Every structure is written in structure tokens, then in C-alpha cells.
Amino acid sequence: MMKLKDERIRKTGELLTNIRTLKMYGWDNWFADWLKETRATEVTHLATRKYLDAWCVFFWATTPTLFSLCTFGLFALMGHQLDAATVFTCLALFNSLISPLNSFPWVINGLIDAFISTRRVSKFLCCLEHSRDFSIDSGFTSEDLAVCVEDASCTWSSNVEEDYNLTIKQVSLRVPKGSFVAVIGEVGSGKTSLLNSLLGEMRCVHGSILLNGSVAYVPQVPWILSGTVRENILFGKPFDSKRYFETLSACALDVDISLMVGGDMACIGDKGVNLSGGQRARFALARAVYHGSDMYLLDDVLSAVDSQVGCWILQRALLGPLLNKKTRVMCTHNIQAISCADMIVVMDKGKVNWSGSVTDMPKSISPTFSLTNEFDMSSPNHLTKRKETLSIKEDGVDEISEAAADIVKLEERKEGRVEMMVYRNYAVFSGWFITIVILVSAVLMQASRNGNDLWLSYWVDKTGKGVSHYSTSFYLMVLCIFCIINLILTLVRAFSFAFGGLKAAVHVHNALISKLINAPTQFFDQTPSGRILNRFSSDLYTIDDSLPFILNILLANFVGLLGIIVVLSYVQVLFLLLLLPFWYIYSKLQVFYRSTSRELRRLDSVSRSPIYASFTETLDGSSTIRAFKSEEHFVGRFIEHLTLYQRTSYSEIIASLWLSLRLQLLGSMIVLFVAVMAVLGSGGNFPISFGTPGLVGLALSYAAPLVSLLGSLLTSFTETEKEMVSVERVLQVMILILFFVCQPKLIAAQKSHS
């Protein structure tokens, strides 16, 4: 089931990454159906688990009734007489043993989950670590060479794969320090693979790759961080004002940034959604230029900008004072860049077809490469008019609105108690008919159990006085009827609860997917994918698993407490009067604890989203991070998010222990008080009669677990409210999507009225 969950989350991540492409081709509904099929397979396995849990609930709930029937039935059939001391001592013992006995299946279930999770984590940790196949040894310290590749053959396959296809084949290359190398070739000739082999991203199966100095890398698809402009350019490096502004000017970003609200402190959306393609390429280049490495590996950085901006970047950045003494290896089709290169490398089918200077390149290799300049780069017109021509016109982006400054809004967190609308919506997801069946069967189940205990007390009283008008078989037959009714109602309650939980899980996922597919692209621009994935992973897991489980416990505690109150009211009202001050203290505790734990759970959910966002973002840019050797910086960022999440989780656990301690103190007080009352009443020293011995024994056996049941009810209600936060968060996303869908219509309606 965990594998299916991982597969579903992976597909959801693909949906979020490629949502614009899917919408453009009209494949979004097909992809949604594909995702729902994966979910259906997952739910099939979930159903098996839930129905097994239903059997556990059935045995857990019917154990007291079955124990009492078997024990007292055999005792009576063996000819012994039932008395209050024997019966209600046994009942108290049964109640104390039931909890640990029935916790055993849940413990086994938890141990199995822990074993599976540990095995999966262990398998991941035992995987081979990424290691660069090149090395820098003492013999490679020549000032003349920056790159030395000797008969290298590289593949994308991992070390554990025996069969692999070579992508780079028998490449030999020597790049002098400080040279500008243009790597050219047809599409698919191996240009990008050559750069990746130099970075160590590919496995070198033959030969050697040696680099001298630090490396900066600009991929063909620019990787943009979700953060401010400055954070994207600094990339963990200290801020140097002079170099920073020189970098912005060289990469033609000064005008763009000046038009942004907030300047270089303006926020860039997830994966740079509020930037044009040319801007993303220039930001990635500026990051590399500012880094100040010894070697620059550039993958077609000029293809995303127009010719005038390309000329500016080529002269001011690649050939300018910031990089003119650095080694630059660039894959390109740009005519100006090729003509300015110190060295040309022609790739063909993963091999170096030819390498040398521009003037020596034979026309027979690639007649399509003409070295005639389309623009005279020495002409001052392109430089002096640059600020007028560079008004961010590429890719159709004419202006940056004020909304772009805070395009990624902070995740909203509701405050106060969970609204009834959330509970009502969950009931709708489960189905009103199933909800009513669950409630009615739970109440009748508890009534049959209480009837069973009352019949036992009646049996004890009649046989104790010796005035019984019925035979032992009659008492046993009535006891069996109560037991059978209890079994049937418990079975209905357990399996209807499992069915309702599964139905809610399916409907929540399908509704969320449908809303997501129909959401406008503006929603994805302003909502990080990690935030959405959080709904599909942790929140949906809560709705699938822990929410139905804790709701079941809450319902059992509620009807159990209701049954105790009814029985105690029937036996002696004084018990309820004594409980009033304790109930007042409990109510004060639960109000304080519920409000605190509810907000802690919301903080827990909100603090989890940055972890998913940071993790997926780091995976997307892993090659860039490794090239810049910024692993420690990003590990530090991730640890910051993780530490914040752990603080909220730790606070949540501490709050639970705080409540548990106070409940135990109050519980010990009330048990002591009830015991003293029973002793005084039995000696005739109390002004109020306690009724027959059978009823007194029943009252004492019911009063003993009352405090723990009150505490369990409070805990389960609080936990239910915390788990309901997941439903609240899913509904929050659905409402937000609805707002984005209706917003254009509302604006159009306002304009028509005005």
C-alpha cells in the first residue's frame, strides 16, 4: 500500500509540474482518470486493511459481553450460585483486561508499519551515494589545462546495472585555462551529456575525466528557487555589493529588477512561474557569474533571449571583465558566440567529431554553421540603446505587475475551533445514510450491553434472596439474547464505519483532483506545488487512516459514557451530583487543552508544507547544487524547516502529556471518593440508600472506569478535532480554487455594471 501511495504522490507531482502542458493539449482529464485508477488500486488495499480493522473493533467491543456470558453461564451451569461479590468483581476484572488485550492487534499493526517503514528507509540509505567520477590529483596542477578528458566513455546507468548504453563514447579533450569553448552539434548529438560527464553526473565506465578548479553550472532548463531575486543570485554566498550590481548589469537584469515591486527583494514564485523564459535563463547565468568559480559550464544559455540581449550578455558577461579570465565551456548554436570562441568542439552521436580553433574548422563538418556575424558587436548602437531595447519584451512579458512582488502568498492558517461545516462535509463525503446507520447502531449496541449488565444484576438479586421464579436456563437464555443482539449491532457498526471511511477517502481524493484539474493556471502560479502535495500526502493519509480510527474511538467513548450516565441515574442520582464538581474541572481542562492542541495541529500541518516544497525543489536542482558544491547550504535550509516542524510536533506531544497528568490526578481523587462512599453506605452510616446489592455492585463497577472514560472521551474528541484539521485544509484548497475560477467572472460582472 505504501508503494501505491508513493506512486500516486509521484504522479500527482508530475501533474503539478506539467499542468500547463496538460491543459494546453487537453490531456488533463485523461491524466486525472489515470491518477484515479492508481488511487482505486490503493483504496483496494486500504479496504482490506480497514475491514480487518473492523473485525478487530468487533472483537474489542463484544469481548465484555462474550466474557460475561461464557464465564457466568458456565459458573451457573456448574451449580454455583451467583452473588454480587463474584459477578461484579469479575466484571471489573474483565473491564481492566479488555483494554490491553484489544490493544494487541493495534500494536501488531503499528509494529508491521514500523518494520515496513524501517526497511524502506534502510533500503534507501544503503543505496550507492552520488560520487563524481572525475578526480583532481597532484599531477594535474598545470596552469595550462582546466579540463583533461582521456578516452572517456560515460553512461547514465547506475553502478548496479550490468547492461547499459554509452552516451559519451571515447571522448578525448583538453581545454586550456581561461579559454572560451563552444560545443556545437546537432540536436541529440551529446552536447548536454558532455557537460554532465564533466560535472560527474554521468558514470564514467572507461577512461578518465580530470578537472582543475571550482565549477559553476547553468543548465539548459534554468533552475529557479522559490524565494527572492537576491537569494536566487547569491545562492548561499555572502553579499558583495560591487560584484552583485556588476553581475546584474552584465546579465542584463538591472532594468528587469528595477521594474519589479520591491526590486531584488521581490519574491519569485515556485520554479520561477512569474518570470519569462529569458529572465529565468539570465537569473541562472547571474547566479553562476556571481559565484566566481574557476570554470563555467553553460548549456545553451543564449537560446532563451533575443539577439540584442544575447549580444549584450556575450560581450559584458561571457567575454567581459567578470569572466574573461575564466574557463567557459558553452553548448550553443549562437553564431556570435561560436565566432568569438577560442576553441570549437563539434559533437556527433556522443563523440567529439572535431575540435580546434574557429579559423581551422573545415566547412565539410557542418556547413550550416556560418561564421558571418548578424550583428556587429563592436557597434556602439547595441550598447547605448540597450536600456531602451531591453524593456523586458522577450516572451511577451511587457510589464511586471505589483501582484508579482508577492505572487507566492503565505499559507493561510485558520484559527479557533473547527467549524461544524467541516464535520458536515465529512458526513456528506461518507454519505448521510451510512452516517445515520453508524450512529443508530452504536447507540443500540451500547444499550444492549447495558441491558446485559442490568440483567446480570437482576439475576444476582433474585438468586441471592432465594425468591427466583425462573430457572437458570431462562436467565441464561435472556443473557444470550442480549449477547446476540450486541454482536449483530457491533458488526453493523464496525463494518459500516469502515465502509463510510473508505467512501469518504475516495470522494475527498476525487473531488480534490477534479477541482485541481479545473483550476486556472493563476492558482498554480500562486500556490507552491509542495503545499498542494502536502494535501495529497499527509492530509489525505490522515483522512484515509487516522481520522476514521479516532472517530471510531470517539463514538465508542461517547456512547459508553452515555450508557454509564443512564445506568448511574437509574441506580443512584447521588453519583451524578458528586461528579458535577469534577465535571466542571474537566470542562475547564478540555476547553484550555482543545484550543491549544488544535492550533498546534494547524501549526504542525502548515510547518510540514515547506519541508515538501524544499525537498522537491532540491531534487529538481540537485545537479546544479552539486556543481556549485552548495550541498551544505541546502541541507541547512532543509534542517531549518525540519526543526520548525519538530518544534510544533514536540509541543503537541508535551501538551498531550500535560493533559494526561492532570486527568490521572483527578481520576485518582474521584475513584477514592467513590470507594469511601461505598464503604460508608454499606455500613449503614450514610443517610441515602444504595439499593440492592446487585445494583450497588453494578454502580461500583461502572463508576470505576468512569474517570478514565471521561479522560479518553476528552482525548479522543481533541484528537478528532485535530485530525479534522486535515479535512479543513482540503476544503480550504477546494474553496481557494473555486475563488480563482469565479474571480474573472466577478471582475467581468463588476465592469459590466460600472
Would you mind describing this structure in some detail?
Helix 18 packs antiparallel against helix 19 (574-620) and helix 19 (574-620) packs across helix 23 (706-753). The chain has 754 residues and is an alpha/beta fold. The protein has 23 helices and 11 strands. It has helices spanning 2-17, 19-25, 28-77, 84-125, 191-199, 229-234, 241-250, 254-259, 277-291, 307-318, 335-340, 381-384, 386-389, 420-430, 432-465, 472-517, 521-526, 529-571, 574-620, 622-628, 631-682, 693-703, 706-753; strands at 145-155, 166-176, 180-185, 203-211, 215-218, 227-228, 267-268, 295-299, 327-331, 343-348, 351-356.
CATH topology description of the largest domain: ABC transporter transmembrane region fold
Biggest β-sheet: count, sense, barrel? Answer: 6 strands, mixed
Shape: elongated
The fraction of residues assigned to DSSP E strands is 5-15%
**Helix/strand-derived class?**
alpha/beta
Keywords: ATP-binding, Membrane, Nucleotide-binding, Repeat, Translocase, Transmembrane, Transmembrane helix, Transport
Main location: membrane
Protein name: ABC-type xenobiotic transporter
Subcellular location: Membrane
